[in-house]
Amino acid sequence: MNDTTRDSSQLILALSKGRIFDDTLPLLAAAGIEVLENPETSRKLILATNDPGIRVLIVRATDVPTYVQHGAADFGVAGKDVLLEHGGEGLYQPIDLKIACCRMSVAVNAGFDYDNAVRQGARLRVATKFVHTAREHFAKKGVHVDLIKLYGSMELAPLVGLSDAIVDVVSTGGTLRANNLVEVEKIMEISSRLVVNQAALKLKRERLQPILDAFERASKQQQ
Ligand code: ADP
Ligand code: PRP
Ligand code: MG
Question: What is the pTM of this model?
């Protein structure tokens, strides 16, 4: 299990619970793979599939690239947001699966004049889980920021005066609305990618390729 790249007949897929797991199931089905347990009800972290040679690891969304990079998983599914923060070292990213689609945006309290603050050259306090992406975005705009690293519930930060703005993913906009925040800038579109360990891609190509092909076909059909 530790050195998965040695046994070329075994494949390990890293997924996170929730939307990525749910949206990956139809892609797995297209490759003839069925996960035999539900991570929402099971406490198991290694799930069997109908193929004895393929198992699924349940990890945190931000940990998927780490498991794949180190070869503890051969492949995985991770959001572009997560991949940009992690960096692409040791990872091959062959397919945009077009699942878990959202956008990365800047949002502020409804009463805060963001454009004016930027024009005035104000120094902004920005709370985010995505410090790398946020730093790059504001550097490009020439806006000075103090970044405050959070691990979730970013929407709270402007409400309690922790920050002037947040950088977070937005889908329906419902969470922003519920907290009286407004989206003032879209940074980029986000979707989830298949990531493959580079060594596994060479050593397990025969096992991996049909699955990658099925994922690619199925994700194209979804568009
Ligand atoms: P986490 O526990 O890290 O928040 P999620 O399952 O919420 O994990 O998010 C996994 C990925 O799904 C994110 O990296 C992002 O790419 C995407 N995502 C996050 N929130 C949304 C959303 N509201 N709608 C669609 N996709 C989302
Ligand atoms: C994500 C994200 C936003 C929300 C945006 O949270 O961090 O809070 O979705 O989606 P919306 O625009 O459709 O409201 P998520 O549901 O993943 O909750 P969690 O990460 O805090 O568990
Ligand atoms: Mg989330």
Answer: 0.96
Q: Measure the CA–CA gap between 34 and 23, rounded to whole angstroms.
A: 13
Pocket lining: 62 vs ligand 1, CB cutoff 6 Å: yes
Compute, in angstroms, the gap from residue 54 CA to the centroid of ligand 2. Answer: 30
Residue count (the chain): 223
Cα–Cα nearest to 105, from 176, 184, 3, 1:
184
Q: Of 192, 223, 201, which Cα lies nearest the Cα of 95? A: 192
Per-residue pLDDT tens over the stretch 154-203? 999 999 999 999 999 999 999 999 999 999 999 999 999 999 999 999 99
Rounded CA gap, 2 and 170, in Å?
37
Place of tokens 């089905």: 29
Please tell me the predicted confidence (pLDDT) of residue 5: 46
Whether 199 and 137 have beta carbons less than 8 Å apart is answered as no
Phi, psi of 58 (to 5 degrees): -100, 115
- Cβ of 15 closer than 6 Å to ligand 1, yes or no, is no
